[in-house]
Amino acid sequence: TGHRSPAGSLKTGRNTYSREVVAYRIAQLEKVGVIQGYTCDINFFNIGYSSYTLALRLSDIDQKKINTLKARSRVAYLQRVMGRFDLTCTILFKDQTDLEGEYDFILKLFQKDLLDLETDMFLGDIDFSANFFLDQDTEIDFRKQGEVDLSDYQVKVLRQLVKGSRLSIVEMAKRLNISAPTVKKIISALKKRKVILANRAIINFQKIGFHRYTLLLQMDPSVQSKLVQFARGHPLIWDIGKYAGVSNFVIEILAKDNAEFESIVSKIRTQFRDSLQKIDHLIVLEELKHEYFSV
Hints:
The protein has helices at residues 19-31, 63-70, 96-109, 152-163, 169-176, 180-192, 224-233, 258-271, and strands at residues 10-12, 15-17, 35-42, 50-58, 75-82, 87-93, 114-127, 140-142, 196-203, 211-219, 237-245, 249-255, 276-290.
């Protein structure tokens, strides 16, 4: 969660790695495709946006249409999946007009191929993904914590960070034609106001032997605290989200194989058998877009 350039020294347990060693190992991970890019997690709730997720089952996967959808500025997150659906898409919007416009565009884009559609309103999540690599408890609380009116320069800085959060402050200042101290001040203020939550390397987990599963749950809302504690305590669960829709909780899981995934599902069925109403899952095949502020 802290990978801004230039690469600094890194301490893990008893070992300390020099700046040069860290930079070399990062470059190697990029070369083999483990690290596919860098972004910045933005709490869009705090800057006046809401989020809506669509899951689409398609008769045909048309790459041109996928590319068209990927290029949409309001599309923040896009995945190819396997299961009941083929594609999941998260859009950002400020008002009903925004939402209707993007929703209608997506329906028109896929109208000849669309077999099924499920929609949910994203209400917030807690992200534990850093714990997959760190020996400490780190989590990102992705829920509304106030609201910030952004200046034009703050918007420009956020866009730069989302597209490449390893960009140095000096380089960012050059691109935006403002001073480096100004960029640094903007970033510090946005972190303080909980707009910038974390920097993130975009990892291809399949390259390191893990598969991503999305568990869709319909449960009694009163077990939310218990479910969050369960997710927080399991090393292979990296995110739990709350939604308004067919599923009201979504759990993201990393597992080496189906057996490992099924063992987690079995524990959830056992521990929440009195409150679990429906359970389904998707296997994430490919993350096509991860930009939580391109609008």
